[in-house]
Amino acid sequence: MIRVLGIETSCDETAASVVALDGASAPDILSNVVLSQIAEHAAFGGVVPEIAARAHVEALDGIVAAALADSGVKLDEIDAIAATAGPGLVGGLIVGLMTAKAIAAAADKPLLAINHLEGHALTARLTDGLAFPYLLLLVSGGHTQIVRVAGVGDYQRWATTIDDALGEAFDKTAKMLGLPYPGGPNVEKAAAKGDPTRFAFPRPMKGAAQPDFSFSGLKTAVRQAAQAIAPLTDQDVADICASFQTAVADALADRVSRALGRFRTEFPDQHEPALVVAGGVAANRVIKATLERLCTTAGFRFVAPPLKLCTDNAAMIAWAGIERLRAGLDEENAFDFVPRSRW
Ligand code: KG4
Ligand code: ZN
């Protein structure tokens, strides 16, 4: 039995979790506590790093205590502490990793410095027991990537955004249209009442040989459309949101379908290849349905872990810790590890 305490503080969620793995049986999420700072940042229309770091300092001890209490596991029964050490906002990373170092030192436990993206990359093995290799589409407020996941610590980025992250494009579009933060869910809500054919927004990178994403041109097109018809009625806002969302889904489908093709070529013997989606944008029903259709057509299994495990959380960090322990990849002395905002 391995039991790991995970800590996540890289953005605007203060989170702690205990995950257990007993032999060959499915892993158990014994607790998963997430405190969102959305209310603290809403007035500013985005995450303010200084406010985030202070909020983590105030909340983290209580969140860790709650995660231990919920799990029914005592600190001395924990096998290791795993904390996000990057990438992310450096203030939050310092708070999380230093707290983890202090707990690990005081309780005399091993410490694992985890890459936040590795947490997202391995989540589908926690939730669905997925076998390597598979493809990951990570679409969040900070990241837009396609990653080939071939083993613990064996990741290859096949595509990334050359400008805005997709969640950021949703958030900026919402802001331009006067919708509240965070923008993604509000754009989706407005889009449900809109006409997706009213505006012919660009599909950035569609058909391009380069595998990457781009969203800033789309954002500019939205701004120009909004300015051209201002002042906007509720129906105008809904139509822009619907047209934007359709353009995003279409552009995404083009980029992902390229990657599915490449995966087929590189792993021709993989009988049931899979695409995993992670990140907050994966909550979007139109995007999810588009990707699901694409996978069905291409003969890929579509894996969308439950939303609370594919947005930022500490269960994925604890799980990455377990995967590293099992793979013997815990040799680095994490007590010397300095948080890396870019990693
Ligand atoms: O993964 P996440 O919770 O946090 C990080 O960025 O790491 O992702 C948050 C992002 C935000 O940009 C938010 O606007 C977007 O995910 N998002 C959505 C939806 N729900 C959240 N975007 C589109 N449609 C949604 N329903
Ligand atoms: Zn994340």
UniProtKB/TrEMBL annotation:
Pfam families: TsaD. Residues 29-319 form the Gcp-like domain. Its main location: cytoplasm. One of its GO terms (biological process) is tRNA threonylcarbamoyladenosine modification. The keyword Isomerase does not apply. Its EC number is 2.3.1.234. It is found in: Cytoplasm. Keywords: Acyltransferase, Cytoplasm, Iron, Metal-binding, Transferase, tRNA processing. Its cofactor is Fe(2+). InterPro entries: ATPase_NBD (IPR043129), Gcp-like_dom (IPR000905), KAE1/TsaD (IPR017861), TsaD (IPR022450). One of its GO terms (cellular component) is cytoplasm. Gene3D superfamilies: 3.30.420.40. It is an enzyme of class 2 (transferase). GO terms for molecular function: iron ion binding; tRNA N(6)-L-threonylcarbamoyladenine synthase activity. It catalyses: L-threonylcarbamoyladenylate + adenosine(37) in tRNA = N(6)-L-threonylcarbamoyladenosine(37) in tRNA + AMP + H(+). Binds 1 Fe(2+) ion per subunit. Substrate binds at L138, V139, S140, G141, G142, D171, G184, E188, N284. Fe cation binds at H116, H120, D312. NCBIfam families: gcp_kae1, T6A_TsaD_YgjD. HAMAP family: TsaD. Belongs to the KAE1 / TsaD family. Required for the formation of a threonylcarbamoyl group on adenosine at position 37 (t(6)A37) in tRNAs that read codons beginning with adenine. Is involved in the transfer of the threonylcarbamoyl moiety of threonylcarbamoyl-AMP (TC-AMP) to the N6 group of A37, together with TsaE and TsaB. TsaD likely plays a direct catalytic role in this reaction. This is tRNA N6-adenosine threonylcarbamoyltransferase. It comes from Mesorhizobium hungaricum.
